[in-house]
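Hi V.,

Quick status before I head out on leave. The structure for the redesign project is tokenized and pasted below; the design run finished overnight.
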């Protein structure tokens, strides 16, 4: 069943902004070590940004070099959601964006179904 749900994708012109959000599909589920990945057509899925919320790396935020300074990931612990603010978008950012997280209920990692981001040049 779906464990994580992404929303916020869409089409935007180059230079524009979009905000993605990822949330648990069920209120009783909670996730940690959440991250964003993306996959362009014909390419491998790649890491975009993530927040460690477990162990000695708690609070560490990481970004792929290609999005540093343009994308910003935030975590709302009260809502159990993770957002990705994407600014100064370029054509190369066009991809399906996926949320990934580890469930506190099961201990397993899960992927969302993805949300499409399309940037027109």
């Amino acid at each position: 069943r779906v464990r994580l749900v992404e929303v916020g994708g869409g089409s935007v012109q180059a230079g524009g902004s979009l905000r993605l959000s990822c949330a648990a599909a069920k209120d009783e589920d909670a996730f940690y070590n959440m991250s964003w990945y993306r996959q362009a057509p014909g390419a491998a899925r790649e890491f975009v940004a993530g927040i460690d919320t477990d162990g000695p790396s708690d609070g560490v935020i990481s970004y792929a070099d290609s999005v540093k300074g343009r994308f910003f990931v935030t975590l709302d612990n009260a809502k159990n959601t993770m957002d990705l603010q994407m600014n100064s978008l370029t054509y190369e950012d066009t991809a399906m964006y996926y949320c990934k997280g580890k469930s506190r209920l099961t201990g397993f990692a899960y992927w969302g179904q993805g949300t499409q981001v399309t940037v027109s040049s």
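Above is the designed sequence. The radius of gyration is 14 Å.

G. will cover questions while I'm gone.

Best,
W.
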